[in-house]
Amino acid sequence: MKVAERISSFIQLGEYLRTFKKSPGNLFLSPLTDAAYRSSIENPWFTPENITTAIGSIGQMLEPVKLHQWLEPYGQKITDNTGPRTIGVVMAGNIPLVGFHDFICVLMSGNRIKAKLSSSDAYLLPAISQMLVQIQPLWKEYLNLTTGKLGEMDAVIATGSANTSRYFEYYFGKYPHIIRNHRNSIAVLNGKETDSVLHDLTKDIMLFFGMGCRSISKLFIPAGYDVEKLKTVLAHYSNYLTHNKYANNYNYQKSILLINNMPFFDAGSILLRNNKSINSPIAVLHFEEYRDQEGLTEAIQADISTIQCIVSESPLPFPSVLPGKAQFPELWDYADQADTMDFLLSCFSK
């Protein structure tokens, strides 16, 4: 399939995905509507709101200008690809459609995808694949999505936890591979943020119940910062306590803190705790004070290998995004800073 045909089909897919929230009765979207409903029934973490947010985010990714901007640096490499080769992809299932980026990278690089779907997210990507084939029937020969074993392949991309990544290294080490494990994201406050900026920050913290690698699990705040400001804006997500699974985590974590007489702030939707760890449980947000830029830089650098995304309104000596943008990555925002497209195009270059 020609590069122009691949690009055109994903542009059309993006046009449909951007209408998903506003056009639930669109017959072309019916496979995705059905998949969203089934996903929300079988996986309570995949609420209709979270699924719609994920679909909308992908739709924004696939705007024509963004697609061309993303692919431009790879230039002739894409045209010269000697594929198609079969790329195995082991997909995570912590948030809806989290594996879409690997999906589009494999296909846009001119290769076939053989994806092992997570049982937590087994319906959404097949529905999008069905839509893609309707747009461009040639894609049918490139798509193999399964919940079973991957079997034969030429390279592999696998995402999992710290424990499963060790197994991935063992089983897939003989193939060209990208192996990812769980990471966390952080935010840095300077104390001068407006209420609007803080409101945007809450999206980075709370969307998808804080279960994504790009979800903020820890805040760095200036010494003397008034945490009450955070409690006020985070309270906007108090409706999360009507969600059974989230409420169970919230109540459990609160009980542990109370029993052990550990200090914390209750924001009405999440518990804020002074803790140096960047990995926080569901319904808990860690924070740490910093006194100067040097100390802040040292603290971040100590955990940089386990950080997925940094959110900050102020300039930092690390790549960062503005508040409100963490959960809406662009196509060029590669997980673990590993350029998936370059990997796919370099594996089998002439």
Explain the overall architecture:
- The mean pLDDT is 93.
- The two termini are 18 Å apart.
- This protein has a six-stranded mixed β-sheet with strand order 8-9-10-7-6-11, sandwiched between helices.
- The protein folds into two domains: 3-182 and 333-347, Aldehyde Dehydrogenase, Chain A, domain 1 (3-Layer(aba) Sandwich), CATH 3.40.605; 184-312, 3-Layer(aba) Sandwich (Aldehyde Dehydrogenase, Chain A, domain 2).
- 40% of the residues lie in helices and 15% in strands.
- Helix 1 (3-17) packs across helix 7 (124-135), helix 2 runs antiparallel to helix 7 and helix 9 packs across helix 10.
- It has helices spanning 3-17, 30-42, 48-61, 64-71, 76-79, 100-108, 124-135, 162-172, 195-206, 228-234, 244-259, 293-302, 340-347, and strands at residues 86-90, 112-116, 143-146, 155-159, 177-180, 184-188, 216-222, 265-266, 271-274, 284-290, 307-312.
- It contains 13 helices and eleven strands.
- The chain has 350 residues and is an alpha/beta fold.
Tell me roughly what share of residues is in helical segments: 25-40%
Task: Pick out the low-confidence regions.
Answer: none
Question: Kindly, what is the distance between the CA atoms of the first and last residues, rounded to a whole number of angstroms?
Answer: 18 Å
Rounded to the nearest angstrom, the radius of gyration is 21 Å
CATH architecture of the largest domain: 3-Layer(aba) Sandwich
Number of DSSP strands?
Answer: 11
Would you list the SSEs in sequence order as H and E? HHHHHEHEHEEHEEHEHHEEEHEH
Number of helices: 13
Mean pLDDT: 93
Percentage beta strand:
15-25%
Biggest sheet, open or closed, and with what strands and sense? 6 strands, mixed
CATH class of the largest domain: Alpha Beta
Query: What is the CATH third-level topology name of the largest domain?
Result: Aldehyde Dehydrogenase, Chain A, domain 1
Total domains: 2
- Spatial order of strands in the largest sheet: 8-9-10-7-6-11
Task: Label the structural class.
Answer: alpha/beta
Overall 3D geometry?
Answer: globular
The H-level CATH homologous superfamily of the largest domain, spelled out, is Aldehyde Dehydrogenase, Chain A, domain 1
